[in-house]
Amino acid sequence: MILMKVLTRAAVCAAAAALCICMTGCEKKKNDSTASDVSSQTQPDSSASPSKVELKKYAFPSFMAALEDPDLLSREVYQSFDKSKVETSVETQKFPEYNCITKIADKLYTYSASGYLGILDGLGHVLISAEKYTKITTVSNDVIMCSYMDKQKEATDFYKIYDNGTIAKYDRKGFSADSIVIFESTDDEHTAGEGEKKFVIQTEHDHYVEDPTGNYLWDSAEKCDPQKINTGKTYRAYYKVSRNGASYYICFDEYYNYVIYEASYARVHLKIGNVSGECYVQSFDDYTELSRMVKSFGKAQATTTPDANETLDYIQITFGLNSPDQQELTISSDGWCLVDNITHNNQPDNKYFACYDRDSFVSLVLWVDQVLSKEYAQGK
Length: 380
Description:
By secondary structure, this protein is α+β, with helices and mostly antiparallel strands. It has five helices and 22 strands. The protein has helices spanning 2-42, 62-65, 83-86, 284-296, 358-379; strands at residues 76-79, 87-89, 99-104, 108-113, 116-120, 126-133, 135-140, 143-150, 153-161, 167-170, 181-184, 199-202, 220-223, 237-243, 246-252, 258-262, 266-272, 275-281, 314-319, 327-332, 336-341, 351-355.
């Protein structure tokens, strides 16, 4: 009996010891697994690909797709002669004895009789009888062109309209750039400070070239070489003026009428996918905003190096089209930017790479779509 009790106690102790060993081993495996998990979280595999940051969506601007060849003279701000306003159709006959056709400059009337045209004054008095001219039309705010047949050929006479409602025939010699003169103003009333120069452009009949507000004084004024203006529009003479930092082109037609266009300050070339195109920045306020926007871009830490990836989208902006020095920025969709001072009148020959946040490229594309599209819509 004593022997049996000893053997039973020994068996119990052995079982307890085995159980302790088994539990200790399990605890060790559990701790080893937890440590492995922690290690994998704090020390990621260097070969794993980083998660992609989703960028804002962008697309090629529709207004640029419609521009076959961007015109430097697109943003019209003023035209000195609007024929549709100077010459209007007569709806109510003011003088029963005459068949009036058009009203001119709110002063005169054309009338028809026996297949010819004549001119009446505002009271219905005949200034030109309807017996010679077959066509009468305005060619400027104060000049009328009257056409007739002379030996099987069309000939023309020109009449000057005066403020009192009278007209007088004059010998028009045709357009001459020499009739447009630039001179320094002596108008002290409009000169802000001592030594400040203002310039005036004067045309035929002593007319001053003025903006929509009637201001005829310019900070600078010069004649332009037509060959250096990228435009499909045809004029007889081109001048460039500036005021308060903004620049304008003044373009003259055959009759010294002029159209004022705001000059372009930057050129934008954009490529997205298989589509590319160009447009201009034609508002001084928009150009100022774009310049500040680019300067505000934060530099990013480069994770790659520029390569020959021809599939990347990019935007190229040429700043300073109206300045002696031009700078060109080419920013790709991966954030790399090549900066090139392409003219060096007052700057050193300098090219360098910079790396921006990838959102910078998207912001520029969206800005072009939202802002420059309005410029071109207003210029139509």
